[in-house]
Amino acid sequence: MKAKSILPLLIAAVLVVSISACLGGQQTQTTTTSSPSSPSDSNTAVSGGSESPQQATTTTVSNNDNSGGVVDKIKDLTAAIASGQAYHCTYTYQGVTSESWIKGEKFKSKSTVDSKVGYAISDGVWMYSWVDGEKTGVKFNIEDMKKLGDQQKANSNKEPADMNEIAKTAGNVECSIAAITDGTFTPPSNIEFSDMGQLLKNLQENLAGLGGNDNTQPGAGQNPDSNPCAYCGMIPDANAKQDCLQSCNQG
Hints:
By secondary structure, the protein is α+β, with helices and mostly antiparallel strands. The protein has helices spanning about 5-25, 75-80, 140-155, 165-170, 195-210, 240-250; strands at about 30-35, 45, 50-55, 55-60, 75, 85-95, 95-105, 105-115, 115-120, 125-130, 135-140, 170-175, 190-195.
């Protein structure tokens, strides 16, 4: 499985949790709705690798809940984060099953595509991402990337995706209370992480020096603000970079 197969899906899975974290502060009430499910219902309990039908339940937890109670099992990533409790969650996004360990603004995610396993960790300040078996990964400052996202939105003619709609696409969400230590959110010390913020800065400086005349590859020699394919230049691995350029050009 090439890098292009796992990295975009890993990033997408991480975005679900990141977006849910942004939306978490918007929870204002606690509601629970149930409806009978059938054996073919996509909302099924997973235990020991097998699936069994159960009541389809959605729970939303209020930030203003003064009862002090804890919901043991919920089916809403936003609610898990808003609760302030530590949860272990599994969910599906774009056909990939992922699991996350959530504790406030911190989380760790694991996504598997065929034999490739990708990880992401956020300690609330930095986001780290890597693929199992690789010696290198990437990291970025969350605040810096938020600013970059705002800049991209301002310079883009395309309508930005609705955050609520993106968050809703996470399916088969199962979250349970878990004992999670802060060490869970510490990136591995044996992996070298490249700073995407610094890579982007270097890319922009290099493009400015080239005068935007190198167009031998899709997205090369162009301003990232006008062509997202240029961001592929931030990827340090040559094969992954080429896969990114090819995928971006096909899109």
